[in-house]
Amino acid sequence: MDETKTPTRAEIPDSDKWDLTHLFAGADKWQEDVAWITRTYPQITRWKGRVGESAQTLAQLLEFERELDQKIERVYHYASLQLAEDSANNEYLTRIGQLQNLLTQIGEATAFLVPEIQAIDDARWSELLRDPALEEWRVSLHKVRRMRPHVLSENEERLLALGAAALSGYDDAFSQLTNVDMKFGLLRDEKGDERPLTQSTYSSFLLKRDRTLRERAFTQFYREFQDHEFTLAAALSYSVKADVFRARARNYPSALEASLFQDDVPVQVYDGLITAVRSGVPALLRYYKLRRRVLGLHELHAYDTYVPLVAEIQTRISFDEAIDRVTAALAPLGDEYVQTLREGLRGRWCDRYETKGKRSGAFSSGSYSAPPYILMNYKEDVFSDVYTLAHEAGHSMHTWFAQKGQRFQDYDYPIFLAEVASTFNEELLTHFLLEQTADPKMRAYIINRQIDDIRGTLFRQTMFAEFEKVIHATEERGDALTLDLFKLEYRKLLDAYFGDAVTIDAQLELECLRIPHFYNAFYVYKYATGLSAAVALSQRVLRDEPSAVESYLGFLKSGGSKFPLETLKAAGVDMSTPQPVKSTIGLFERRLEELERLL
Fold first, then answer.
1. pLDDT one-digit tens code per residue, 228-243
2. What is the pLDDT of residues 48-68, one digit of tens each?
3. How many of the other CB atoms lie within 10 Å of CB of 312?
4. Whose CA is closest to 353, among 385, 371, 379?
5. What distance in Å separates the CA atoms of residue 321 and residue 170, rounded to the nearest whole number?
């Protein structure tokens, strides 16, 4: 295969692709379920005006909705995974469009349900919940009921349901522009070979020892973003406007509070994260200055912040070798965890490599009673991709255990908890790799990797969280969201988090326009809190504290049956305080001291 171009899916073996037949044997079977949903969902109107009639009536409605929702989840899972395989495939785009239209119709038909639940007076509601018929629905009903101040009338809910697809169009536009339309060209690598520069290979170029190559990759990559900067700024602007509209429509004080309310997380946790991380910035700047000295640079630029500091260590790890390392690292979690994961990864849970039109990055995606699939764009020469596999495996095993431990209505866990399971795996992988080597250079390499992981997950994601808070507050004040405003506010944060240790190129201000997570606002802070919780929980397991493994597996099995802070507290970490964040910064400082000694 010609390595200078990105292969198509037809050019790679099936063993390197995920096996979606666990969802549907083919498109015909998928269409059968879509047809079933289409003809079945109108029956839900039989319960209109009767939701509070009796506990039995409500239970019947919820059972009908559960069957419908499981079908919907499954067909959307299949269609979305296929679209991730090839974002330019017209057949896949058509299926997603078909589902979006169908879901709009279903949302309109079911708009009466939540308002009718909220209209039941408190005394009657308490009486209904005491009935055994609703026993297995109490958790999910509590989550619905607490939304009472933010649920609108039936007609208003219908309008929001009708506008749901239109209000999220900016995300599709961003995805199509950045994954399909934007072309970054070819770049001659350190061997003189021309290689495609893509969103996926960009990270690989930034790890190269050749500084001129890193700089060329950075400049060429951001030149394409600069050519589309006004379009991207418009997409981001309308994403923020939609967030603010939805928050105001539902009577939340702000878009931030609307987002946090879903997880019952106080604003103080968000603000406390920012304050705690800001206090750790001096240690971050100290690391950048060490990096500048070790690399022998007069000035450190953003494209110099990813290359490993230990030049002698060359890594090339096949995907199968990565599976072996990850599963060995997770051995403390027991045979069931490790064996299930190993069989899943070798049994085609994972779509392994980059192909033409494939979504960039990585993710895990599951649905009830189906495998928790993983999308990767694995590169053998990018050591961090081993960590990415461990990270996504954490998500997938979280889903697998939650499926086993909870009913459908309670299994789906929030992102706040998801990021704990994924970064927990990364912590165990680091411990395993350090235990496996006595070579000071390799140890320095791994410690450098962990430092960069904390830098990227705690410091960088918190900087992103600050940016999201600033731009949403700007919209809420009534000020204009323009390209210049985005670049100005982002530059302020770059200056704060890089200080005098890094020379900031003007192109880096465009970074705020290329982060996909900004289209799912107030998501990124959960990476930082997730890492902090994961550090605390992994240390309990590695210290072999009594019941630490049992408590952690219980956390995975709990799914979405409790709110995140309550779930984590039961597992052994209190995220309502800044202490776990400060402890993670302390780990960063200790690792930095060791790295300074080793280098």
1. 999 999 999 999 999 9
2. 999 999 999 999 999 999 999
3. 10
4. 379
5. 39
- Give the other-Cβ count within 10 Å of 459's Cβ: 21
Does the annotation count 392 as an active-site position?
yes
Mean pLDDT of 384-396: 94
pLDDT-based confidence at residue 1 (cuts at 50, 70, 90): very low
| Helix pair 27-40, 55-85: axis angle to 10 deg | 150
Helix orientation angle between 384-405 and 548-557, rounded to the nearest 10 degrees = 70
Residue 4: band (very low, low, confident or very high) from pLDDT cuts 50, 70, 90: low
Higher local confidence (pLDDT), 113 or 360: 113
Identity of residue 162: L
Domains and CATH numbers, the chain: 9-167 (1.20.140.70)
Residue 378 CA, distance from chain mean position: 17
Give Rg (Cα) of the chain: 24
Is there a contact between 304 and 291 (Cβ–Cβ < 8 Å)?
yes
CB 401 within 8 A of CB 553: yes
* Secondary structure element (H or E) that encloses residue 105, with its range: helix 90-109
Q: How far apart are CA 483 and CA 228, in angstroms?
A: 11
The answer to whether the CB of 214 falls within 8 A of the CB of 206 is yes
Q: State the CB neighbour count (10 A cutoff) for residue 273.
A: 24
DSSP assigned state of 503: B
pLDDT digits (tens, 9 = 90+) for 526-567: 999 999 999 999 999 999 999 999 999 999 999 999 999 999
Is the pLDDT at 311 greater than 80? The verdict is: no
Judge whether 382 and 306 are in contact, CB under 8 Å: no
The neighbour count for residue 340, using CB atoms within 10 Å, is 16
Residue type, 104: T
Structure pTM? Answer: 0.83
CA distance 369 to 366: 9
Catalytic residue among 85, 157, 354, 392: 392
pLDDT, the chain, mean: 94
Residue whose tokens read 């209190």: 574
With beta carbons less than 8 A apart as the criterion, state whether 276 and 586 touch: no
Cβ-based neighbours of 427, under 8 Å, separated by 6 or more: 534, 535, 538, 539
Dihedral sign, Cα of residue 466, residue 472, residue 475, residue 476: negative
| Length reported for the chain | 599
Extended beta strands in 330-475, E state: 350-351, 363-365, 373-375
**CA 505 vs CA 143, 148, 372, 499: distances in Å:** 46, 48, 40, 13
